[in-house]
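Continuing the batch. This is chain 6 of the set; chains 1 through 5 are on the previous pages. Same settings as before, nothing changed between runs. Recording input and output for traceability.
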Amino acid sequence: MIARQFLRENPETVREALQRRGDDTDLDRLLEVDEEWRGLKAEGDELRHERNEVSSEIGQLKAEGDEEAAQAAIERSQELKQRLTEVEDRADELEAELEAGLLRLPQIPDEEVPPGEAEADNVERRREGFDDLRAVPESVVPHYDLGEELDLLDFQRGAKVAGGGFYFTKGAGARLEHALIQFMLDIHREQGYTDLFPPIPVASEAMRGTGQLPKFSEDAYRVGGSNDESYDDDDLWLCPTAEVPVTNMYADEILLDDDLPVKHQAYTPNFRREAGEHGTETRGIVRVHQFNKVELVNFTRPEESEDRFWELLDEAESVLRRLDLPYRVLDICAGDLGDKAARQVDLEVWAPADDTEEGPAEGGRWLEVSSVSNFRDYQARRAGLRFRPERHESAEYLHTLNGSGVAVPRVLVAIMEYYQNDDGTITVPEPLRPYLGGMETIEGSEKIGEAAVGAGEKE
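Output for chain 6:
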């Protein structure tokens, strides 16, 4: 979150940041609340000081036998007590309003963030892998049709057991998904990441620490509760991203300078309602409620976070490079920037099926597989993440960064379409073959059950 002191001293900087983001937060109200709260805190201090003095006078006056003056002092003390109660109650109300408002304030974008209001204003920085594209079929079969034909994906049975937006990967499809996860973990381990396997349910306090709450509760799956803002700290949520448990594992702790940078990676299944995305990518596994992802989370010294940001981007890109998948790099504009991020760069892989107007000249469409973000001290202030530069020095807030390395289902889509062959089979990318027992081509398998048999062939 943005520090109160910074807001007080730099209101126009915050106002400009909100305008760049297209955020309509009532900043004037927040500033008014803060000013009134500070005034009441000062008044409260004065009232307590006067009450202490009056209390001392009462005993002295009684000892001197001046009962009339003592009684007047007692009445004054009671007046002070009543006013102090009123002041403290009002200050508590304002404190709660101020805290809630600060939790909803988005991060201040870096100066280098491109201007813009929405996704269409994001800036494409470069493309990779398009100079030597492999030959794909003239008419690429979309992954959802090919997946069902080869019995790699089962949407109907997924919906039967869990509802829409859930699916089964089967046979070689499931093996390919497992292979991708292990492949990514191995790559990032080479890059110096420590493996974690975190808890999947996460507490409300952890969701607040990384910024998922209070703004984005409608997109999360709550365990045993509703999705309004009257949540309790005991409530649990299904992990929307490993960023939440991994970042909060050090909440309210002080790391040592020698500990930094910390680089953690974690594979988790992730759960999202995608409440605001109805009507987009409704077929297949591009936009689903449960998906696998390897997340990269970094903790750095403030002065090193900028360099680490670009290194993190390169680490995430390495997965796509090794798989020889074409992709592009997008610099996210201020209006499309995540609330927590000061800077965000997305990786979008190319999937050649389903031509769209926004796709490349080769046809197909872009699928976001990673958002690499520098949160600076925004999450650290919310979660109490600090480090001590020297043992005798005061603790400082560290910087947090994260990126996906990468979202598995969309990479699976890209492989099924980009590595598709004319005969309807799928070539396994060479780096994944050792994880699949040397399998070079996915040919599919026989389907199970009466439903798989043509109506005219049923007994």
